[in-house]
Design goal:
mainly beta, Thrombin, subunit H, Methylamine Dehydrogenase, Chain H, 2 domains, four-stranded antiparallel β-sheet, 4 helices, 9% helix
Length: 306
Protein backbone atom coordinates (compact mmCIF):
# COMPACT_ATOMS: atom_id res chain seq x y z
CA UNK A 1 0.00 0.00 0.00
CA UNK A 2 2.79 2.43 0.91
CA UNK A 3 4.67 1.49 -2.26
CA UNK A 4 1.58 2.15 -4.38
CA UNK A 5 0.96 5.51 -2.69
CA UNK A 6 4.58 6.55 -3.21
CA UNK A 7 4.36 5.63 -6.89
CA UNK A 8 1.21 7.70 -7.31
CA UNK A 9 2.86 10.71 -5.63
CA UNK A 10 5.94 10.43 -7.81
CA UNK A 11 3.84 10.27 -10.95
CA UNK A 12 1.77 13.25 -9.83
CA UNK A 13 4.80 15.58 -9.68
CA UNK A 14 6.25 14.56 -13.04
CA UNK A 15 6.13 17.25 -15.71
CA UNK A 16 3.43 16.89 -18.33
CA UNK A 17 6.08 17.42 -21.01
CA UNK A 18 9.34 15.56 -20.54
CA UNK A 19 11.29 18.27 -22.38
CA UNK A 20 10.89 21.37 -24.50
CA UNK A 21 11.31 19.15 -27.56
CA UNK A 22 8.48 16.94 -26.30
CA UNK A 23 6.22 19.98 -26.01
CA UNK A 24 7.00 21.30 -29.50
CA UNK A 25 6.17 17.85 -30.88
CA UNK A 26 2.74 17.97 -29.22
CA UNK A 27 -0.67 18.79 -30.67
CA UNK A 28 -0.93 21.69 -28.21
CA UNK A 29 2.13 23.38 -29.72
CA UNK A 30 0.84 22.73 -33.23
CA UNK A 31 -2.51 24.34 -32.35
CA UNK A 32 -0.75 27.39 -30.87
CA UNK A 33 1.31 27.73 -34.03
CA UNK A 34 -1.85 27.69 -36.13
CA UNK A 35 -3.30 30.75 -34.39
CA UNK A 36 -3.35 33.98 -36.37
CA UNK A 37 -0.25 36.13 -36.67
CA UNK A 38 2.28 34.57 -34.31
CA UNK A 39 5.02 37.11 -33.67
CA UNK A 40 7.68 35.79 -31.31
CA UNK A 41 8.31 32.78 -29.07
CA UNK A 42 10.31 32.99 -25.85
CA UNK A 43 10.85 30.47 -23.10
CA UNK A 44 12.84 28.75 -20.40
CA UNK A 45 12.84 25.26 -18.89
CA UNK A 46 9.42 25.79 -17.26
CA UNK A 47 7.42 28.11 -19.51
CA UNK A 48 6.97 28.85 -23.20
CA UNK A 49 5.44 32.17 -24.29
CA UNK A 50 3.71 32.54 -27.66
CA UNK A 51 3.11 36.18 -28.59
CA UNK A 52 0.51 37.14 -31.18
CA UNK A 53 0.00 40.45 -32.90
CA UNK A 54 -2.86 41.02 -35.34
CA UNK A 55 -4.86 44.09 -36.33
CA UNK A 56 -7.62 43.05 -33.93
CA UNK A 57 -5.71 42.00 -30.83
CA UNK A 58 -2.35 41.47 -29.15
CA UNK A 59 -1.78 38.82 -26.51
CA UNK A 60 0.65 36.31 -24.98
CA UNK A 61 -0.18 32.69 -24.27
CA UNK A 62 1.97 31.20 -21.50
CA UNK A 63 2.32 27.42 -21.46
CA UNK A 64 3.36 25.80 -18.17
CA UNK A 65 5.44 22.79 -19.19
CA UNK A 66 4.90 21.13 -15.82
CA UNK A 67 1.11 21.00 -15.66
CA UNK A 68 0.14 22.07 -19.20
CA UNK A 69 -1.87 25.06 -17.97
CA UNK A 70 -2.19 27.92 -20.51
CA UNK A 71 -2.67 31.55 -19.46
CA UNK A 72 -3.68 34.32 -21.84
CA UNK A 73 -2.43 37.85 -21.11
CA UNK A 74 -4.03 40.45 -23.38
CA UNK A 75 -2.42 43.79 -24.17
CA UNK A 76 -3.65 47.03 -25.76
CA UNK A 77 -0.44 47.67 -27.71
CA UNK A 78 1.69 45.46 -29.93
CA UNK A 79 3.82 42.96 -28.00
CA UNK A 80 7.52 43.23 -28.81
CA UNK A 81 9.29 40.97 -26.29
CA UNK A 82 8.80 38.65 -23.32
CA UNK A 83 11.27 37.61 -20.63
CA UNK A 84 11.13 35.24 -17.65
CA UNK A 85 13.15 36.10 -14.55
CA UNK A 86 12.66 33.79 -11.56
CA UNK A 87 8.98 34.06 -10.55
CA UNK A 88 8.21 37.05 -12.79
CA UNK A 89 7.25 37.62 -16.41
CA UNK A 90 8.14 40.84 -18.21
CA UNK A 91 6.09 41.76 -21.28
CA UNK A 92 7.27 44.63 -23.44
CA UNK A 93 4.82 46.45 -25.69
CA UNK A 94 5.43 49.43 -27.94
CA UNK A 95 4.85 51.84 -25.03
CA UNK A 96 4.84 49.88 -21.75
CA UNK A 97 6.76 47.38 -19.67
CA UNK A 98 4.43 45.14 -17.66
CA UNK A 99 5.45 42.77 -14.85
CA UNK A 100 3.34 39.74 -13.91
CA UNK A 101 3.60 36.95 -11.39
CA UNK A 102 4.50 33.85 -13.37
CA UNK A 103 2.22 31.40 -11.57
CA UNK A 104 -0.91 33.50 -11.18
CA UNK A 105 -0.70 36.03 -14.00
CA UNK A 106 -1.27 38.81 -11.44
CA UNK A 107 -0.14 42.21 -12.75
CA UNK A 108 2.58 43.68 -10.52
CA UNK A 109 3.40 46.88 -12.38
CA UNK A 110 2.86 48.77 -15.63
CA UNK A 111 5.48 51.33 -16.61
CA UNK A 112 5.85 53.80 -19.46
CA UNK A 113 9.03 52.88 -21.36
CA UNK A 114 9.99 56.47 -22.24
CA UNK A 115 10.57 59.44 -19.93
CA UNK A 116 7.62 61.83 -19.97
CA UNK A 117 9.47 64.41 -22.06
CA UNK A 118 9.79 62.05 -25.04
CA UNK A 119 7.00 61.15 -27.44
CA UNK A 120 6.07 57.89 -29.16
CA UNK A 121 5.65 57.58 -32.89
CA UNK A 122 6.99 55.86 -35.97
CA UNK A 123 10.44 54.36 -35.30
CA UNK A 124 10.17 55.57 -31.67
CA UNK A 125 8.53 52.56 -30.04
CA UNK A 126 10.06 49.95 -27.72
CA UNK A 127 11.31 46.84 -29.51
CA UNK A 128 13.51 44.62 -27.31
CA UNK A 129 14.34 43.87 -23.69
CA UNK A 130 17.40 42.86 -21.67
CA UNK A 131 17.71 42.65 -17.86
CA UNK A 132 20.70 42.69 -15.51
CA UNK A 133 20.71 42.33 -11.73
CA UNK A 134 20.11 46.06 -11.33
CA UNK A 135 18.91 47.48 -14.65
CA UNK A 136 16.40 47.05 -17.46
CA UNK A 137 17.61 47.97 -20.94
CA UNK A 138 15.06 48.60 -23.70
CA UNK A 139 15.86 48.85 -27.40
CA UNK A 140 13.84 51.90 -28.37
CA UNK A 141 14.14 52.68 -32.07
CA UNK A 142 15.72 56.00 -33.01
CA UNK A 143 15.99 56.99 -29.33
CA UNK A 144 18.60 54.25 -28.86
CA UNK A 145 18.62 52.34 -25.56
CA UNK A 146 16.59 53.31 -22.50
CA UNK A 147 17.90 52.20 -19.08
CA UNK A 148 15.54 51.80 -16.12
CA UNK A 149 16.24 50.80 -12.54
CA UNK A 150 15.07 47.21 -12.29
CA UNK A 151 13.32 47.68 -8.93
CA UNK A 152 12.17 51.31 -8.73
CA UNK A 153 11.52 51.41 -12.51
CA UNK A 154 12.94 54.93 -12.56
CA UNK A 155 14.34 56.08 -15.91
CA UNK A 156 18.10 56.32 -15.45
CA UNK A 157 19.58 57.34 -18.81
CA UNK A 158 19.34 57.18 -22.58
CA UNK A 159 22.21 55.55 -24.46
CA UNK A 160 22.34 56.51 -28.12
CA UNK A 161 25.89 55.84 -29.29
CA UNK A 162 26.80 57.31 -32.66
CA UNK A 163 27.46 55.03 -35.64
CA UNK A 164 29.07 55.89 -38.99
CA UNK A 165 26.60 57.12 -41.62
CA UNK A 166 26.93 57.89 -45.35
CA UNK A 167 26.08 61.49 -44.45
CA UNK A 168 24.77 63.48 -41.48
CA UNK A 169 21.14 63.25 -42.62
CA UNK A 170 20.94 59.49 -42.24
CA UNK A 171 19.23 57.82 -39.26
CA UNK A 172 19.39 54.28 -37.86
CA UNK A 173 17.29 52.65 -35.15
CA UNK A 174 17.98 50.09 -32.42
CA UNK A 175 15.72 47.07 -32.98
CA UNK A 176 16.85 44.66 -30.25
CA UNK A 177 19.29 44.25 -27.39
CA UNK A 178 21.09 41.47 -25.55
CA UNK A 179 23.94 41.39 -23.05
CA UNK A 180 26.75 39.38 -21.54
CA UNK A 181 29.63 40.06 -19.12
CA UNK A 182 28.86 43.77 -18.70
CA UNK A 183 28.47 44.34 -22.45
CA UNK A 184 25.36 45.34 -24.38
CA UNK A 185 24.87 43.95 -27.86
CA UNK A 186 22.43 46.04 -29.91
CA UNK A 187 21.36 45.49 -33.50
CA UNK A 188 20.53 48.46 -35.71
CA UNK A 189 18.46 48.81 -38.86
CA UNK A 190 18.40 51.67 -41.33
CA UNK A 191 15.55 54.20 -41.24
CA UNK A 192 16.70 56.38 -44.15
CA UNK A 193 17.89 55.50 -47.65
CA UNK A 194 19.34 57.46 -50.60
CA UNK A 195 19.92 59.78 -52.25
CA UNK A 196 22.24 57.39 -54.09
CA UNK A 197 20.67 54.23 -55.57
CA UNK A 198 22.52 51.92 -53.17
CA UNK A 199 22.92 54.28 -50.22
CA UNK A 200 21.23 53.55 -46.90
CA UNK A 201 21.83 54.32 -43.24
CA UNK A 202 23.94 52.12 -40.96
CA UNK A 203 22.87 48.51 -40.41
CA UNK A 204 24.79 46.26 -38.09
CA UNK A 205 25.76 45.63 -34.46
CA UNK A 206 27.24 47.69 -31.67
CA UNK A 207 28.92 46.31 -28.55
CA UNK A 208 28.78 48.73 -25.63
CA UNK A 209 30.34 48.59 -22.14
CA UNK A 210 27.43 49.88 -20.06
CA UNK A 211 29.39 49.69 -16.80
CA UNK A 212 32.07 52.11 -18.05
CA UNK A 213 29.87 53.96 -20.56
CA UNK A 214 32.17 53.17 -23.47
CA UNK A 215 31.71 51.92 -27.03
CA UNK A 216 33.68 48.73 -27.69
CA UNK A 217 32.82 47.78 -31.28
CA UNK A 218 30.77 49.08 -34.19
CA UNK A 219 30.35 46.35 -36.80
CA UNK A 220 28.47 47.17 -40.00
CA UNK A 221 26.68 44.80 -42.33
CA UNK A 222 28.31 44.51 -45.75
CA UNK A 223 25.45 46.34 -47.47
CA UNK A 224 26.56 45.23 -50.93
CA UNK A 225 25.70 41.65 -49.97
CA UNK A 226 23.19 41.69 -47.10
CA UNK A 227 20.63 43.78 -45.25
CA UNK A 228 18.88 43.75 -41.89
CA UNK A 229 15.15 44.18 -41.42
CA UNK A 230 13.98 44.73 -37.83
CA UNK A 231 16.37 42.02 -36.66
CA UNK A 232 16.21 40.43 -33.20
CA UNK A 233 18.94 38.89 -31.03
CA UNK A 234 19.42 35.71 -29.03
CA UNK A 235 22.45 35.39 -26.75
CA UNK A 236 23.75 31.85 -26.28
CA UNK A 237 26.71 30.49 -24.33
CA UNK A 238 29.38 31.41 -26.88
CA UNK A 239 27.48 32.86 -29.81
CA UNK A 240 24.97 35.51 -30.84
CA UNK A 241 22.15 34.68 -33.24
CA UNK A 242 20.64 37.47 -35.29
CA UNK A 243 17.14 36.66 -36.56
CA UNK A 244 16.30 38.64 -39.67
CA UNK A 245 12.92 37.86 -41.28
CA UNK A 246 13.10 34.06 -41.83
CA UNK A 247 16.91 34.03 -41.64
CA UNK A 248 19.04 33.19 -38.60
CA UNK A 249 22.66 34.35 -38.68
CA UNK A 250 25.04 32.62 -36.24
CA UNK A 251 28.03 34.63 -34.95
CA UNK A 252 30.73 33.46 -32.56
CA UNK A 253 31.23 36.01 -29.78
CA UNK A 254 34.99 35.60 -30.11
CA UNK A 255 34.82 36.59 -33.80
CA UNK A 256 32.68 39.64 -33.08
CA UNK A 257 35.64 40.98 -31.11
CA UNK A 258 37.69 41.22 -34.32
CA UNK A 259 35.40 41.07 -37.39
CA UNK A 260 35.34 44.28 -39.45
CA UNK A 261 31.91 43.47 -40.91
CA UNK A 262 29.14 41.12 -39.81
CA UNK A 263 30.29 37.70 -41.04
CA UNK A 264 28.14 34.86 -39.71
CA UNK A 265 29.71 31.41 -39.67
CA UNK A 266 26.33 29.93 -40.59
CA UNK A 267 23.17 31.22 -42.24
CA UNK A 268 20.06 29.19 -41.50
CA UNK A 269 16.93 29.52 -43.59
CA UNK A 270 15.99 26.01 -44.75
CA UNK A 271 14.24 23.66 -42.35
CA UNK A 272 12.70 20.23 -43.01
CA UNK A 273 9.31 21.38 -41.70
CA UNK A 274 9.17 24.50 -43.92
CA UNK A 275 9.71 28.22 -43.35
CA UNK A 276 9.71 29.75 -39.89
CA UNK A 277 6.63 31.70 -38.80
CA UNK A 278 7.63 34.57 -36.55
CA UNK A 279 10.79 34.61 -34.46
CA UNK A 280 11.67 31.26 -32.85
CA UNK A 281 12.79 30.31 -29.36
CA UNK A 282 16.50 29.48 -29.58
CA UNK A 283 18.60 27.58 -27.04
CA UNK A 284 22.24 26.47 -27.07
CA UNK A 285 21.29 23.28 -28.91
CA UNK A 286 18.05 23.83 -30.83
CA UNK A 287 15.73 26.21 -32.62
CA UNK A 288 12.12 25.73 -31.49
CA UNK A 289 9.37 27.30 -33.50
CA UNK A 290 6.39 27.31 -35.81
CA UNK A 291 6.83 26.29 -39.43
CA UNK A 292 4.75 26.60 -42.57
CA UNK A 293 5.15 24.46 -45.68
CA UNK A 294 4.07 26.76 -48.50
CA UNK A 295 3.76 23.85 -50.95
CA UNK A 296 1.27 21.92 -48.82
CA UNK A 297 -0.10 24.70 -46.60
CA UNK A 298 0.67 22.61 -43.51
CA UNK A 299 1.51 24.51 -40.32
CA UNK A 300 3.49 22.60 -37.71
CA UNK A 301 5.57 23.02 -34.59
CA UNK A 302 8.94 21.43 -34.02
CA UNK A 303 12.63 21.87 -33.49
CA UNK A 304 15.85 22.04 -35.48
CA UNK A 305 19.21 20.96 -34.07
CA UNK A 306 21.98 23.56 -34.20
Amino acid sequence: MRTTLLLVLLLSVQALYASTTDFFNSMTAKALCAEEKINIIRGDENTIAFSYMSKRESYVKLVNLVDGNIQKLEQKDKIKDTLFIQDKIFILTTKELIQYERQTGYEISRTRTLPNNLIYGKYRGARGLYLTDSSIFIAHGIYGIIELDRYSLEHLRILNPSVPQPNDAHISMVTDIEGKDGKLYATLDNVTIGPGPDERAFEGLIIYDHLNDKMIRVIPVNQRKEAYHMSTLTMLEDELIISNLHLNFRHKLSKLATDRTMRPFQRLWRYPQGSLKGHPYITNTKIYGCFENFNTGVISSGSYKL
